[in-house]
Amino acid sequence: MLPKFNSAVLFVSLIISSHASANLVTNGSFEAPPGFALGAQGVMPPGWVATNLTPDLYSTDGSFGLAPGYAGNFPGVAAQNGLGWVAGASGISETFAQELGAPLTPGVEYSISAYLMQAERFDLNHTGAYEILLNSSNSFSGAVLAATWDPTTGSDSWEYRNAIFTAPANASLLPWLIFRPYASGSSTAYPGLDNVVLAAVPEPSSCLFFFFSAAIVALAACRRPPNRPTKR
Hints:
Blueprint: H1 2-19, E1 49-50, E2 56-59, E3 84-87, E4 96-99, E5 109-117, E6 128-135, E7 144-148, E8 159-166, E9 176-183, E10 192-200, H2 204-223
Antiparallel strand pairs: 1-4, 2-3, 3-10, 4-9, 5-8, 5-10, 6-7, 6-9
């Protein structure tokens, strides 16, 4: 019975994985090939563009972009996911963006999550986060504010943030997703950002139907009688 149960659990897990909404953001972990803009400040990884002044790309081992210890910004820090992350300064509005493969659907709820890291350098070690905006182009001028993450609370670990928002009525005209750093006080914040995930929030009725169906599949697989040898 145990092997059949394990098979049923695996089958249901695969269904759950396929049912989960796909990440609408490309390269949300800010990865780049080794040697990409090695040691250069003010670069963005593949899939991303700057909308004003360019944020900085970091990698855990310094194989692309900047090494974590550059200028004392993130000494000893490793990426939350993969090798890369970015950091933008609020005081000079180092904003960056990505054109989504398809615009968001008006009236639909979306979840956008990521991990934030507070810089350690003395003049940048201030609480901050990012505003998430939508626009018709890769500019934050005239952009629509979709969500805001809570600011960091310290500089010793990556902090998970999530926000739920409803796509505006003109979302079909706003295919650009923009991130603008902000400080929670008067000082300049320089928050690291990694593992961005944007996905539609499933409707409650759809979730209930799906999990009820998955439970029936699992029970049916577990209760199936064993094969009996054929009499000769």
